[in-house]
Amino acid sequence: MLSKFRTAYKTPTGTTPYKLIYGKNCHLPFEIEHRAYWALKNCNPDLIAAGEKRMFQLHELDELRHQAYENSRLYKARTKVWHDRKLRMRKEFKQGNKVLLFHSKYKFKQPKLRSRWLGPYVVKHQYPSGYVELYGKDGKTFIVNGHRLKLYHEEDNDPREAVTPFFPKE
Fold it and tell me: Which fold has domain 98-151?
């Protein structure tokens, strides 16, 4: 049961925060009765051997911190790859394209039979940050986020094409 408590919280670095700071495991309060035995067991009256042991412990602590740093760097790299995979590709718009603007006023409950897309608007300029400047219907310009836009495909109404009726006239 004791080992369950000692390894309860570990960070992505592979160690506990207490061990990273102090270089030793945390001793919980219910171990206080064994504290005197623990202190006597670690006591070494030979000062030279104690100094060498302390230097070894310091080097071990530096190695532990270096390993935690490497684990943290690898964790951040994996998290970045996972996050970048989830991102949508940025939409590219050219000057003069016609686009539709998503109407985000009705986020939760929109009226029935009403389109969520406004427009068409004409693209004036696309910024590298993803924002797009549009011409409004009244000739004014405004800036919106590129994620709220989609290309508008106009219907090709060719006047030369004859419309064939469903029921031919007799």
Answer: SH3 type barrels. (2.30.30)
